[in-house]
UniProtKB/TrEMBL annotation:
NCBIfam families, sorted: PRK05820.1 (NF004490), PRK06078.1 (NF004747), Y_phosphoryl (TIGR02644)
Full protein name: Pyrimidine-nucleoside phosphorylase
Family: Belongs to the thymidine/pyrimidine-nucleoside phosphorylase family.
Keywords in alphabetical order: Glycosyltransferase, Transferase
Gene3D superfamilies: Nucleoside phosphorylase/phosphoribosyltransferase catalytic domain, Pyrimidine nucleoside phosphorylase-like, C-terminal domain, Transferase, Pyrimidine Nucleoside Phosphorylase, Chain C
Segments passing through the bilayer: none
Ribonucleoprotein found in the keyword field: no
GO molecular function, one term: deoxyuridine phosphorylase activity
Enzyme nomenclature, EC number: 2.4.2.2
Record keyword Transferase present: yes
Pfam families the UniProt entry points to: Glycos_trans_3N (PF02885), Glycos_transf_3 (PF00591), PYNP_C (PF07831)
Enzyme class per UniProt: transferase
Length: 433
């Protein structure tokens, strides 16, 4: 078998066998296939795509390139969730205690953020003492005892994907749905979950900018799950503006606490309850979606959800007092306001620009080596559909920096304000099973 013959075959848009895909993936990971041949191979996939069987085989090859997490000692159906990424996305912090309350084990592995703000791991580390490095024994014991635990991803999970992703980044092959789907699903499958709920975000702050692309990605990932014996559901959600009102790390933890106390913004509450309900369905806790949704709302309104979040923080070494007193979380030294220059209704908020602004304030990383300012971020005072008068505050910027000129300009560019009220869009577009 030769790499050039496989490249030629895919160039002619012929489907590849499992053995041919494995030959390319493992050969490249082990240094036997050079960058230029793998780059050519990726470009044939970019232009010609892959069928569902090929994508499942690519995913499985990524999984087999490194370690897989063995969660067999955890009782019950282990359910994981994954978001394709957005701005102000603190959903994992909300759903972990909610789903665990229903008796479904959540053995969560999350990464750190690179870009707008920190990932779920970074956000939780803004809580004093919170540990994301647990031994395998402690991780499994916590899930069996409390039905929940969250840790950072292991170093040798899907090394093929890491190496190929780095090459995609410099060969303009990032935005290929077969490659995106196999990258995402390989990490979830290697993490040991029995069932997976995918939050596929679409809009200005998401990787997928339109609903057709988001739907194709969602269907592709669900097909991978089916092919590899993982019960998988994808939920397409709105990311045309930041989720909720807070963007950053500690301020997103504060907002997650609000949602679990029943005082959260409508958009993030609905998205979180929808995702948690489907996680509970896959975990066997309920028979239908409406029953799950109502029960989870009850757990929020009763205060049980908030107590479960305290328990998660406590068992991972953090200070649970932050739940009752969020002021204990890190704060930035300075707060600056961005004011509206006109009267009118907020018609559009470019979520990506808001995210970039948050990074400029210190809430995210430009490179893996950068440190995060946990207190930095943005509080949105006006969202789509709100009426704003000239001179009213659009956003508050939280930072340790003294100069916020660039971030302020991006905030102003992000907001589109017009005389007419915009048509409302749903928070959850569709569910693909």
């Amino acid at each position: 078998m030769r790499a050039v013959d496989i490249i030629e075959k895919k160039k002619k848009n012929n489907p590849l066998t499992k053995e041919e895909i494995d030959f390319m993936v493992q050969g490249y990971t082990q240094g036997q296939i050079p960058d230029y041949q793998m780059a050519a191979f990726l470009m044939t996939i970019y232009f010609n795509g892959m069928n569902y069987d090929e994508i499942a085989n690519m995913t499985e090859s990524f999984v087999n390139s490194g370690d897989s997490v063995d969660l067999s000692r955890i009782h019950g159906v282990k359910v994981d969730k994954h978001s394709t990424g957005g701005v102000g996305d603190k959903i994992s912090i909300i759903v972990i205690p909610l789903v665990a309350l229903c008796g479904v084990p959540v053995a969560k592995m999350s990464g750190r953020g690179l870009g707008h703000t920190g990932g779920t791991i970074d956000k939780l580390e803004s809580i004093e003492g919170f540990r994301v490095e647990l031994s395998p024994e402690e991780f499994i014991e916590n899930v069996n005892t409390y039905k929940m635990a969250i840790v950072g991803q292991t170093a040798n999970l899907t090394p093929a994907d890491k190496k190929i992703y780095a090459l995609r980044d410099v060969t303009a092959t990032i935005d290929s749905i077969p490659l995106i789907a196999s990258s995402i699903m390989s990490k979830k499958i290697a993490s040991g979950a029995d069932a997976i709920v995918l939050d596929v975000k679409v809009g200005s702050g998401a990787f997928m900018k339109n609903i057709d692309e988001a739907r194709e990605l969602a269907k592709t990932m669900v097909s991978i799950g089916k092919n590899l014996n993982r019960n998988t559901i994808a939920i397409i959600t709105n990311m045309d503006q930041p989720l909720g009102h807070e963007v950053g790390n500690s301020n997103e933890v504060k907002e997650a606490i609000k949602v679990l106390s029943g005082k959260g913004a409508k958009d993030e509450t609905e998205v979180a309850l929808t995702i948690a309900s489907y996680m509970c369905l896959l975990g066997g806790a309920f028979d239908d979606f409406e029953q799950a949704y109502k029960e989870l709302e009850t757990k929020i309104n009763s205060g049980l959800a908030l107590e479960k979040l305290k328990e998660l923080i406590l068992i991972q070494g953090g200070n649970p007092e932050v739940v009752d007193n969020p002021d204990l979380l890190p704060k930035a030294k300075n707060t600056f306001c961005v004011y509206s220059e006109v009267d009118g209704y907020v018609n559009k908020i470019d979520a990506e620009l808001i995210g970039i602004s948050a990074m400029l304030l210190g809430a995210g990383r430009k490179t893996k080596e950068d440190s995060i300012n946990y207190g930095a971020g943005i509080s949105l005072k006006k969202k789509i559909g709100d009426y704003v008068r000239k001179g009213e505050v659009l956003c508050e910027l939280h930072t340790d920096f003294d100069n916020v000129e660039e971030a302020t300009k991006k905030i102003n560019d992000a907001y589109t304000i017009k005389d007419e009220l915009p048509e409302p869009k749903p928070y959850v577009y569709e569910v693909i099973q």
